[in-house]
Amino acid sequence: MGVLSELEAGLAKLSTPMRVYVTAGRFTEPDPDLPELAARIRTLLAVVAVDEAWQRFLPGYAPPSVPEICAALEPVETQRAAAFLAHVAGVDLVWPSHQHLPAETAERAADRVVTLLGPEAGWWTNHDTECGAVNGLTPLFDSLLAGTDGEHFALALQIADD
Q1: pTM of this prediction?
Q2: Nearest CA to 43 among 121, 149, 162, 137?
C-alpha cells in the first residue's frame, strides 16, 4: 500500500459523518507550499458548504480565498501534530465532554497519519496556539489541522453549530 492510500485509510478512521471532514492527496504542482495547501483546504471547505447537513447553516457561504486561508493559518510543531489531530477528530468543539471517537482510536489513527507524513512535515491550524483563539474559516465553529510533506497532504476539519 502506498503512502497516499495509507494516508486516506488513516484519515478515514478520523472522519465522522457531518462533523469531521478529511481528505488526503498528492500535489500536482512543482514545489508546493502553503498556498497550494490552502487551495486544498478551500476545496474541503467547498465540500462542507454543499453538504446537505450544513447548507441551512451556511446560506450564501463561499470559502475564503487562498490568501485569506493562508492568513488564518498558524504553524503547529510536528511533535504536537498527532495530539492536535486526535483532538480535532475526536473531541466535539462545542461540547468537549462529547467524544466523536474513542480517544484511543483517534490517537492511534492520528499517530499513523503524522508518521506517514514524516518528521519533516509542516503542520498548520486555524488556531492561534499562543492564546487559543480561532481564526474561523466558516461562520460556524470550525477546527482545522493541515499537514504536508511537500508531496502529500492530509487535512482534517471539524465543523459544529452552536
Answers
A1: 0.94
A2: 137
